Amino acid sequence: MRYAYSIGDCPDFEGSYETVDAALKAAEKCIARDIKKGFDPFVGGPRQILVGHHATVHPRLDVDDAIEAMQDFADDYSNGIAGECNFLDDLTDDEKAKLDELLKKAIAKWATYIGSKATVDFIEGANTYVYEEAKK
After folding, report:
1. Residue 85 region, left (φ>0) first, then alpha (ψ -120 to 50), else beta?
2. Residues 117/118/124/126 CA torsion (nearest 10 deg)
3. CA–CA gap between residue 74 and residue 86 (Å, rounded)
4. What residues in the chain have per-residue pLDDT under 50?
5. Which tens digit of pLDDT belongs to each residue from 67-87?
6. 3-class DSSP state for residue 8?
7. What Å distances lie between residue 121 and 55, 72, 127, CA to CA?
């Protein structure tokens, strides 16, 4: 299992470390560097370090999201003038399931084509550690 850290309430995270302690030490080094440069790494937010499991997932497109995107396209294309969109409104469960299957296959092919760019990295199960500046 790999771990990553985030500083303050910043949504960004850094690294992929083998242990929680390694992630904490890396975060503390980063904070010390920023402070030395005169930059507040917490930007007025909580003085905390979040450390959690570094997870990677492949993107997924929900069939309802795809139908909504098609409706948005139809609205934009028609300048908001209502039109007949039976393929959006009257799909059976079987037809939605087939569309869902096709979307999953298409995304899998696309992900294979672009490789590691087809992933989303994030921290899950993060624990909060209060940062206390080292005494000199």
Report:
1. beta
2. 20
3. 12
4. 135-136
5. 888 888 877 877 766 666 666
6. coil
7. 6, 28, 17
To which residue do tokens 């992929």 refer? 16
Q: Report in angstroms the alpha-carbon separations of 98 from 61, 66, 73, 91, 103.
A: 14, 13, 21, 10, 9
Phi-psi region of 102 (alpha: psi -120 to 50; beta: other; left: phi over 0): alpha
Q: Which helix (H) or strand (E) holds 72?
A: helix 63-77
Give the bridge partners for 4, in sequence order: 52
HSE (side-chain half, CA atoms, 13 Å) at 82? 2
User: What CA–CA distance (Å, rounded) separates 129 from 30?
Assistant: 15
How many CB atoms sit inside 10 A of residue 109's CB? 9
Q: Which residue has the tokens 């990677």?
A: 56
